[in-house]
Design the sequence.
C-alpha cells in the first residue's frame, strides 16, 4: 500500500545555486508537496496535488516554511557534553576538554547514551543529516550508526584515527586504525542510509604510517568519504610544519599519503596557501565552513566569497562541540557575521542553501537530499517564521520571503522547528 502525505506551507524549492546569479531568483515557493513512500513525488498547488492523490493525508503548515532538513557537514558527536567549554584555543581545548570526554566513551553504554542524546538534540534543531567524527573506539562508531539507523537517518560517520600526540587511552596504531575502519566499512557503509567516512583526526595526531594506511584504505573503498581537519589555526599549521618538515604544506601531509580527493571533507580550511587552494579546487574536494567554532576557539575568518570564487565545493557545519551550538540556524547566523567581517553580506538564500543543498553537495548526497524535488528523499522541516515575540515583530515588516526568513536565521533556535519528517515520517 502506498503511504501518501501532502504538506502545505511555503515550500522552498531551489532550482540553482544562489551563489551563481541573483540569489533571490535561485528558489521558488510552491504551495504544497506530495510525499509517497518516503520520497517527494511532486510540488505544486494544493488542488493539483489533491487531485493527483485524493487519499493523501494533508498536514497543514500554511504560514511555515517547508524546507529540506538541515545538513551538518562536520561534527563530533562525542563532544556533545563538553559543548561551550570556556577559555581555550585548539590544542589546549583538545587536551583540557575534548580528550578527557572522548576517553569516557571507552564505556560502550556511555557512547550509546551520547549518540542518542546527540541525535535527539540535532533532530530537535531540524538537522536530519550529520557527518560526524566518533572517538578512536570502534564501538563509538557502532553506537552512532545504530542510533542513526533506528531513526532511519541518512548519516555519515567514522571512527577517529590517532596514533600519536593524544592520551595513550585514545591511541590506536596504523594497523588497528586500518583494520577497525575496514571492519566498520564492512558493517555499515551503504547499509540503508549510512555512509562511512574514513577519519584521520588531523595530521598532528597521525604518524605518516597511519596516514598511508588510511590512504590505502580509501583507495580500496573509493565510495567512502574521508573527513579530517585542515589549517584551522596558525599555531596548528606551525605544529604540522615541525612534525612533517619535508612536506610542501599542510595539505601535502594528506596528499602524499593518498588522502586528497573529491570525496574528501576538509574541516575549517581557513588559512590556506594559494597552492593548497588550487589543489583542493582541482580535485573537487569540499571545504567545510564551521563558523561558530572558528569564532569560539578563535581560529580565524573563513573567506567564503573568495573560496566560492576559486571554485571550491563548500559545506556548512556546527563542528559540535568546538562549535557552540547544535543549531544550523545559529550556524547560518555566524556565517553571516563572518561574511560581514570578510566583506560579503551573504544573502539569506545563500545561507539557507549552504545549510541544505550546499552541504548535501559537499557530502556527495545531493542526488537524494538537500533540495525539494521529485524523487528526493523526504527529509523535511517546517519552520515557524514567528517563533518568538522578537522574531515575530521583525518578520511582520517583511516584504518578501527572504526578508521574512532572515530574522529566524539571525535570532531563531529549536523553537522555530515546528516539525521534522524523516523519509516522510513526522518525528513528533
Ligand atoms: N582539530 C583536531 N581535532 C579537532 C576537534 O575535535 N575539533 C576542532 N575544532 N578541531 C580539531
Ligand atoms: Zn572538527
Sequence:
Amino acid at each position: 500500500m502506498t503511504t501518501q502525505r501532502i504538506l502545505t506551507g511555503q515550500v522552498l524549492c531551489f532550482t540553482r545555486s544562489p551563489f551563481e546569479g541573483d540569489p533571490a531568483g535561485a528558489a521558488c515557493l510552491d504551495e504544497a508537496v506530495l510525499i509517497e513512500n518516503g520520497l517527494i513525488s511532486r510540488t505544486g498547488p494544493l488542488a493539483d496535488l489533491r487531485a493527483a492523490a485524493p487519499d493523501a493525508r494533508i498536514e497543514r503548515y500554511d504560514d511555515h516554511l517547508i524546507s529540506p532538513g538541515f545538513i551538518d557537514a562536520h561534527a563530533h558527536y562525542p563532544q556533545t557534553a563538553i559543548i561551550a567549554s570556556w577559555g581555550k584555543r585548539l590544542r589546549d581545548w583538545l587536551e583540557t576538554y575534548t580528550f578527557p570526554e572522548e576517553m569516557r566513551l571507552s564505556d560502550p553504554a556511555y557512547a550509546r547514551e551520547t549518540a542518542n542524546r546527540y541525535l535527539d538534540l540535532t533532530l530537535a534543531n531540524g538537522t536530519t543529516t550529520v557527518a560526524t567524527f566518533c572517538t578512536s573506539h570502534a564501538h563509538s562508531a557502532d553506537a552512532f550508526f545504530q542510533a542513526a539507523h533506528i531513526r532511519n537517518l541518512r548519516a555519515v560517520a567514522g571512527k577517529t584515527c590517532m596514533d600519536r600526540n593524544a592520551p595513550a587511552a585514545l591511541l590506536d596504531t596504523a594497523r588497528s586504525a586500518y583494520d577497525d575502519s575496514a571492519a566498520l566499512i564492512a558493517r555499515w557503509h551503504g547499509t540503508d542510509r549510512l555512509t562511512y567516512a574514513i577519519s584521520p583526526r588531523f595530521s598532528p595526531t597521525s604518524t605518516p604510517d597511519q596516514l598511508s594506511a588510511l590512504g590505502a584504505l580509501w583507495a580500496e573503498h573509493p565510495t567512502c568519504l574521508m573527513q579530517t581537519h585542515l589549517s584551522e589555526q596558525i599555531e596548528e599549521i606551525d605544529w604540522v610544519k615541525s612534525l612533517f618538515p619535508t612536506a610542501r604544506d599542510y595539505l601535502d601531509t594528506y596528499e602524499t599519503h593518498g588522502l586528497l580527493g573529491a570525496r574528501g571533507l576538509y574541516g575549517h580550511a581557513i588559512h590556506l596557501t594559494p597552492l593548497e587552494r588550487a589543489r583542493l579546487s582541482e580535485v573537487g574536494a569540499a571545504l567545510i565552513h564551521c563558523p561558530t567554532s572558528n569564532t569560539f576557539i578563535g581560529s580565524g575568518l573563513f573567506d567564503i566569497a573568495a573560496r566560492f570564487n576559486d571554485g571550491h565545493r563548500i559545506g556548512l557545519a556546527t563542528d559540535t562541540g568546538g562549535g557552540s551550538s547544535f543549531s544550523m540556524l545559529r550556524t547560518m547566523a555566524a556565517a553571516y557575521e563572518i561574511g560581514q567581517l570578510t566583506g560579503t553580506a551573504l544573502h539569506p538564500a545563500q545561507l539557507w542553501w549552504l545549510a541544505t543543498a550546499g552541504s548535501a553537495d559537499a557530502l556527495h548526497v545531493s542526488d537524494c537530499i538537500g533540495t525539494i524535488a521529485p524523487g528526493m528523499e523526504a527529509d523535511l522541516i517546517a519552520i515557524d517564521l514567528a517563533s518568538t515575540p522578537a522574531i515575530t515583530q521583525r518578520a511582520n515588516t517583511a516584504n518578501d520571503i527572504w526578508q521574512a526568513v532572515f530574522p529566524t536565521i539571525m535570532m531563531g533556535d529549536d523553537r522555530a522547528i515546528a516539525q521534522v519528517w524523516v523519509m516522510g515520517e513526522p518525528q513528533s
About this structure: The CA atoms of residues 23 and 347 lie 7 Å apart. The pocket of guanine (ligand 1) is lined by residues 76, 90, 94, 98, 201-202, 229, 232, 293, 297, 319, 322 (CB under 6 Å). The domain at 70-362 is CATH 3.20.20.140 (TIM Barrel). The chain has two domains: 4-68+371-426, 70-362.
